[in-house]
Specification:
single chain, 176 residues, eleven-stranded parallel sheet, 11 strands, Curlin_rpt, signal
Length: 176
């Protein structure tokens, strides 16, 4: 199974576990809620989903291009930003807990990125530029920090962090 398929499967499994799949809330349905910002889509064939349950969520999802898919799901007080510019980009963020930050910035074609956070005080950043790049960060615990930066073609990275305590930090940089 490719990392892109794993990212999609993990995001769907997380959403199913949270009771959000199938009846996923579209950004337009959430505009009257004060806990989320609406997704902004420029281009054609874009899919944006934002879902938030309880707490003070802050989410921003901006997409430009075509055939991009972006999903942000939050439970608790968290912050997420996803910016996608290109074609056939897949991005997903799932946050359960509090005081977590997740950022996905993608540009190019056919890139896939996912961040899954459970706990408190976790920070994650994925920046991808190019084509066919895949990145996944999974964090479970307190005070974890991870960054993946990829610029090139067909690069793959995956970071998994489990545990509690500040000072747990991982940085992956790949260029091709």
């Amino acid at each position: 199974m490719s990392l892109r398929s794993q990212i999609n499967a993990l995001l769907m499994a997380s959403m199913l576990g949270l009771g959000l799949a199938g009846g996923a809330v579209m950004a337009a349905d959430l505009q009257d809620n004060q806990d989320l910002m609406a997704g902004t889509e420029l281009g054609q064939d874009l899919s944006a989903q934002l879902a938030g349950l309880s707490g003070e969520q802050k989410a921003l999802l901006l997409q430009q291009g075509y055939s991009n898919v972006g999903k942000i799901t939050q439970i608790g007080s968290n912050q997420a930003v996803m910016l996608q510019n290109g074609a056939d980009l897949l991005g997903g963020i799932v946050q359960v807990g509090s005081d977590q930050e997740a950022y996905i910035l993608q540009q190019g074609a056919a890139n896939a990125a996912g961040i899954i956070q459970f706990g408190s005080g976790n920070d994650a950043l994925i920046i991808q530029n190019g084509a066919f790049n895949q990145a996944l960060i999974t964090q479970n615990g307190v005070g974890n920090n991870a960054q993946i930066m990829q610029d090139g073609y067909a690069l793959q990275s995956s970071v998994t962090q489990w545990g509690n305590g500040s000072g747990r930090s991982v940085v992956v940089r790949q260029y091709r």
